[in-house]
Design brief:
The chain is of the alpha+beta class. The chain has six helices and five strands. The longest helix has 30 residues. Bound molecules: zinc ion. Zinc ion (ZN) binds next to loops.
């Protein structure tokens, strides 16, 4: 009989984890894109994973990061009317690396993922991330009020 490692309750049942958030490697949080059933505690909602569950969770997390990364890059290219090469210059990464994370051959670092989120959803983020952005002028303007 399995029991919850957190509260000791034996009231566990399989529940779909789609949409829930799990930590993974250097990611503090990844939202799951696909259906995956894991045992969950009724008392404290703790998820109890078996060895094979860990593997399944890993696969869904990789798929979720791939989906989000590819979507974010697509959004940035469309919104900022830029090329993948231009985006790689703004992000300070090689165009090969950008292409690898877009196609899902590699998972981006959490920092890279966060940068893509900001570039995709931040209003002026793409122009600010231009390496030629006149930063000192903008700081002076800011400090002058
Ligand atoms: Zn519990």
């Amino acid at each position: 009989m399995k029991k919850c490692g957190n509260c000791g309750s034996k009231e566990l049942s399989k529940r779909n984890q789609k949409g829930k958030i799990f930590p993974w490697r250097d990611y503090p949080a990844v939202q799951l894109i696909a259906d995956v059933m894991f045992m969950e505690c009724h008392q404290c909602n703790n998820v109890v994973l078996s060895v094979s569950d860990h593997q399944k969770l890993d696969e869904v997390i990789v798929k979720s990061i791939q989906y989000a990364t590819s979507s974010l890059i697509g959004m940035i290219l469309l919104k900022s009317k830029c090329t993948q090469v231009e985006l790689s210059i703004h992000a300070g990464v090689s165009k090969e690396y950008l292409s690898e994370i877009k196609s899902g051959r590699k998972q981006p670092s959490f920092q890279m993922f966060t940068l893509l989120k900001i570039l995709a959803f931040g209003k002026d983020a793409f122009s600010i991330s231009d390496p030629k952005y006149e930063l000192i002028d903008k700081i002076d303007e800011y400090e002058a009020g």
